[in-house]
Design a protein that fits this description.
By secondary structure, the protein is of the alpha+beta class. The chain is 42% helix and 16% strand. Among the domains are: 40 residues; 196 residues, Umud Fragment, subunit A. The strands form 2 sheets. Strands 1, 2, 3, 4, 9, 10, 11 and 12 form an 8-stranded antiparallel beta sheet that branches. A 4-stranded antiparallel beta sheet has the order 7-6-5-8, with no helix packed on it. The protein is elongated. InterPro entries: LexA/Signal_pep-like_sf, Pept_S26A_signal_pept_1, Pept_S26A_signal_pept_1_CS, Peptidase_S26.
């Protein structure tokens, strides 16, 4: 074909040019090699020797089965989990007889703290507060829960049923039914502290009739007690007989820090009217007050609150007496809603991831 000769000539020329270029490169490389510093040859030689040594060590090193290593790690983790589970189970399976003394001691400690500072149970030993509180010799008296906190913030008020320590001016003869044996007496005191035994009769329960600064006397033409000249409203009074009347006593002005107290069973109660000969000797120091009777907790048939009707207060209309209950009902839902909102906000804040 025409043109084939030219193509062959062209290829020959290209091959010739390529051969010449290769020769030039070889010549240049040899020249560069001849002129390279001796230090480079030494470094390359050392690197080659180090590489050969490393390969030899790798060939002679013992081989380790990766599957065995992985299995050992898993087994170790499993063993650790088993130990933790067994320890937790052993802790949960602590014998009950080991935990029982701890539970008893803790219960007694909490009971002691509660009765010493918050509330205490007292046994009513006599009928002087009938029928508000029931008690008599040889019968099962009411167990009354007494609030010890309320008088941290205020003094006793008229109408409060209070438990107090018998003042020094009151009669103390023949009261304490404690055993002459010191050990038995100690257990009796301990039982009284926990509400399991009758308290010492040094503790008395009565109703507050007048407080410091007031003058109390009895009686008006309707046989009512007067405070500052005003007759008292006393629906809680108990009379064993319909024609029973209260005994008269002269006016007594109560000094600050003292209380004039009386039993609801007026014809069968030794109280401020007669104790210590009456007058100021029959008054009770506010500091002697242990607490306020709140509720009858035993026996179950007597479960109820202890009323604190203020005999000096004027009667209010029924709708006014219901105001506190109405306010409580009306405020219940908003209070619950607000509590949920606050709890939701706190929960969201706790789950929010810090940036």
């Amino acid at each position: 074909m025409p043109g084939d000769g030219r193509g062959a000539d062209h290829l020959d020329v290209s091959d010739r040019d390529s051969t010449q270029s290769s020769a030039e490169v070889d010549t240049k490389t040899k020249a560069d090699a001849e002129t390279a510093p001796a230090e480079i040859d030494a470094q390359d030689k050392n690197a080659a020797i180090a590489k050969v040594d490393a390969m030899a060590q790798a060939e002679t090193a013992p081989t380790v089965d990766s599957g065995t290593v992985g299995s050992g790690a898993v087994d170790g983790a499993a063993d650790g989990d088993d130990v933790a589970v067994k320890a937790k189970q052993a802790k949960k399976k602590r014998p009950f007889w080991v935990e029982l003394p701890i539970l008893i001691a803790l219960a007694l400690l909490l009971t002691f703290l509660i009765q010493s500072f918050l509330a205490r149970v007292f046994v009513i030993p006599s009928e002087s507060m009938e029928q508000t509180l029931h008690g008599c010799a040889g019968c099962t008296g009411d167990r009354v829960l007494v609030d010890r906190v309320v008088y941290y913030f205020r003094d006793p008020a008229p109408g409060d049923v209070v438990v107090f320590e018998r003042p020094g001016t009151w009669d103390h003869t023949g009261l304490d039914g404690r055993s002459g044996n010191p050990l038995v007496s100690w257990f009796q005191d301990l039982g009284a502290q926990f509400g399991l035994a009758d308290p010492s009769e040094e503790d008395v329960v009565k109703r507050v009739i007048a407080v410091g600064g007031q003058t109390v006397e009895c009686c008006d033409d309707q046989n009512r007690v007067l405070v500052d000249g005003e007759p008292l409203d006393e629906p809680y009074l108990y009379r064993m007989y319909s024609d029973a009347t209260q005994e008269d006593f002269g006016a007594v002005t109560v000094p600050p820090g003292k209380l004039f107290v009386m039993g609801d069973n007026r014809n069968n109660s030794l109280d401020s009217r007669k104790q210590g000969g009456g007058g100021e000797n029959g008054l009770v120091p506010v500091d002697n007050v242990i607490g306020k009777a709140r509720a009858i907790i035993l026996p179950p048939s007597r479960w109820r609150g202890v009323g604190d009707h203020n005999p000096q207060a004027l009667s209010a209309p029924a709708w006014q007496a219901g105001i506190p209950a109405g306010v409580g009902v009306a405020a219940a839902w908003p209070t619950l809603w607000l509590g949920r909102r606050v709890r939701g906000i706190l929960t969201r804040d706790g789950k929010r991831t810090p940036r």
